[in-house]
Amino acid sequence: MAFRGRGPRFTPPPPDQHRINRYIRAPRVRLIGPDGAQVGIVPIEEALRRAEEAQLDLVEVAPNADPPVCRIMDYGKFKYQQHKKEAEARRKQATTTVKELRLGYRTDVGDLERQIQKGREFLQEGDRVKYVLRFRGREMAYQDLGREKLLKVCEALSDVAAPEGTPKMEGRMLSVVLAPLSKKKAKGGQQAASGGNLPERAEGSTGS
Question: pTM for this one?
Answer without folding.
Answer: 0.47
